[in-house]
């Protein structure tokens, strides 16, 4: 497991396993966001299995599947709501952590500069430069 903290309250990661959840909880995360559609992964990592394992540890679990290349504003709204309503730090995962970074950036376009929203994930190898026009457009709303 590779926790990549974009901010003190939001981290992303490539796919996790139920056995990773105790370490995630021990690291202080209280909400888990699954940005991976079940169709991409084996049954033991599907939403229901991950939800049961997370909730058994007292973690809040949110399923917000983001289909590669088909991100919607509903995904962005759901991610933002999960972050805003979390009682503490949020841990989001997908295949690589990229989609979890993208929805985070889009969800924060009104509060942070495009440079920061692109630069922060870039520290972990996520290239969000292609989002610059969208982030700038959303910041002007």
UniProtKB/TrEMBL annotation:
Q: What is this protein called?
A: TIGR01244 family sulfur transferase
Q: Does the keyword Transferase apply?
A: yes
Q: Where is the Beta-lactamase hydrolase-like protein phosphatase-like domain?
A: 2-109
Q: What lineage does UniProt assign to this protein's organism?
A: Bacteria, Pseudomonadati, Pseudomonadota, Alphaproteobacteria, Rhodobacterales
- InterPro entries found in the cross-reference section: BLH_phosphatase-like (IPR005939), Prot-tyrosine_phosphatase-like (IPR029021)
Q: What organism is the protein native to?
A: Fuscovulum ytuae
Which keywords describe this protein according to UniProt? Transferase
Claim: Repeat is one of the keywords in the record: no
State a single Gene Ontology molecular function. Answer: transferase activity
Q: Name one Pfam family in it.
A: BLH_phosphatase
Q: Which domain of life is it from?
A: Bacteria
């Amino acid at each position: 497991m590779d926790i990549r903290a974009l901010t003190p309250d939001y981290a992303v990661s490539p796919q996790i396993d139920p056995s990773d959840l105790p370490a995630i909880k021990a690291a202080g995360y209280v909400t888990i966001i699954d940005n991976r559609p079940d169709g991409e992964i084996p049954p033991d990592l599907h939403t229901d299995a991950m939800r049961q394992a997370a909730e058994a540890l007292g973690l809040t679990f949110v399923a917000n599947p983001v289909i590669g290349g088909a991100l919607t504003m509903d995904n962005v709204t759901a991610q933002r709501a999960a972050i805003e309503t979390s009682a503490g730090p949020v841990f989001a995962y997908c295949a690589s952590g990229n989609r979890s970074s993208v929805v985070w950036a889009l969800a924060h376009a009104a509060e942070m500069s495009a440079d920061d929203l692109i630069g922060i994930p870039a520290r972990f190898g996520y290239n969000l430069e292609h989002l610059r026009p969208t982030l700038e457009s959303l910041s002007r709303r």
